[in-house]
Design goal:
212 residues, alpha+beta, Aminopeptidase, 10 strands
Length: 212
């Protein structure tokens, strides 16, 4: 397992956009996460399918958060919980994944069912893109979605991604179902012309210090 370079700059741990607070997940978020998933019903079944025993237990959410936190702290894949600043309610999560290869990251996200249709997906994905191009200095961002996920495809196009093609019978992770995926990419040369580059964003490090 790789360890962080002490001389490298750590990634932002907390982000503020006009309507959202994004931060590294904490133990106290487990109950908020369970509520977000449970209340969404079939809306999130492709990501968190119910088992014969029912929905994911609180302990299962704790395990997911511990793994995500460990990965974040080791400068590997990063998961930001997305919260309503006024209430602390968990609206969803957005991810920056390193499986895209050198000089690239993959962006992903999910929203609870009752938070859809309000532009939050575009705002949280824009925040992730701005972090990737500004702090990680990537050359390319990837975005994948199920072939029938019209909302995510619309978000990708809204953010300036180019549709690369339909990947047949793919499974990006063991917990994902096999399906055809739509592949979108965004290059660093294209990023300055996208809505994400104009998003007002405040970023803070592990100690809460504002990052330029």
């Amino acid at each position: 397992m790789s360890t962080p370079d002490p001389a490298s700059k750590p990634p932002p741990y907390l982000l503020r956009t006009p309507r959202l607070l994004l931060r590294c997940m904490e133990p106290a978020d487990a109950e908020r996460r369970k509520d977000a998933v449970d209340s969404s019903g079939e809306h999130l079944d492709n990501l968190y399918p119910p088992t014969p025993e029912g929905r994911m237990s609180l302990d299962a959410h704790v395990a997911r958060i511990r793994m995500a936190r460990g990965s974040f702290d080791l400068d590997q894949d990063r998961c930001y919980g997305v919260f309503a600043p006024e209430t602390g309610r968990l609206l969803g999560e957005t991810f920056l994944l390193k499986r895209a290869g050198p000089g690239a990251l993959e962006v992903g996200y999910w929203l609870r069912r009752d938070a859809t249709g309000q532009g939050f997906a575009t705002e949280m994905a824009s925040a992730a893109l701005k972090v990737a191009f500004t702090f990680d200095k990537v050359h390319r961002m990837d975005l994948y979605c199920d072939h029938d996920n019209e909302r995510s495809a619309a978000v990708a196009r809204r953010l300036g991604f180019t549709f690369e093609g339909r990947l047949r019978d793919r499974q990006l992770a063991p917990h994902h179902p096999r399906a055809d995926l739509l592949c979108f990419t965004l290059l660093d040369s294209e990023y300055p012309q996208t809505p994400a580059s104009q998003l007002p964003l405040e970023a803070f490090d592990f100690l809460g210090r504002r990052l330029a």
